[in-house]
Specification:
Strand order of the largest sheet: 3-2-1-4
Number of strands: 4
Order of helices and strands: HEHEHHHHHEEH
Number of helices: 8
Distance between the termini: 32 Å
Shape: globular
Largest sheet: 4 strands, parallel
Structural class: alpha/beta
Strand content: 5-15%
Helix content: 40-55%
Radius of gyration: 17 Å
């Protein structure tokens, strides 16, 4: 299952999506990756996963390439979790350069913020308040390792959906932000212009 929560995630409608997937296709593409519920459920052998969200893609790459290091740092965050630590972690995520540190901060904030929401301001700084959880599941070690196994050999790229290149026999799963609803997944939004470009 996805190792992060994501607004608009598709776990609840997988029973509707799975029957619509063709039995054979070349490469699975998901250019609005989010939590990746459909990818983790179908487990394609060849896939190209992408999203415009920099921190999300860095996190997926780190879980694929360095899951043990991500888990080790997540345990540190879990041991220090409180409101003051959470607020400082939001600032650290914006400034951090190391991929493993970014991934552990991203997952920690995702598991402890309000409703697992990802929202940034115009400067790109994560600004969701802390959620009211008694015992948040910050470190799901087994699932992280299983996700890492499924991501081995998978292309994971940070890019805009306009950069995808459809090829014959590929499967493209397009799950953009819903029109005129929440689109704060990055600092630029996803308004009428982006929906028109996607339709074209």
């Amino acid at each position: 299952r996805p190792f992060i929560k994501w607004v608009g995630g598709k776990r609840s409608i997988l029973h509707e999506l799975i029957p619509r997937i063709p039995k054979q296709y070349a490469t699975y593409h998901e250019p609005f990756l989010g939590g990746g519920a459909l990818f983790f459920n179908t487990q394609p052998k060849k896939a190209y996963l992408s999203d415009i969200n920099f921190h999300l893609i860095i996190t997926f790459q780190a879980v694929r390439d360095s899951v043990d290091d991500v888990i080790r740092k997540l345990k540190i965050h879990a041991n220090h979790h409180n409101k003051d630590y959470f607020i400082k972690a939001r600032i650290r995520l914006f400034k951090e350069k190391d991929p493993v540190s970014i991934a552990s901060l991203f997952i920690y904030l995702n598991k402890t913020c309000f409703n697992g929401l990802y929202r940034v301001n115009k400067a790109g700084m994560f600004n969701v308040p802390m959620g009211d959880y008694k015992n948040p599941a910050i470190v799901d070690e087994d699932n992280l390792k299983n996700c890492s196994l499924l991501l081995q050999g998978i292309d994971i790229v940070q890019q805009d959906f306009n950069q995808i290149r459809p090829q014959r026999n590929d499967l493209f799963y397009l799950d953009p932000p819903y029109h005129e609803t929440y689109d704060g997944y990055n600092g630029s939004g996803f308004a009428d212009k982006e929906h028109t470009n996607l339709a074209e």
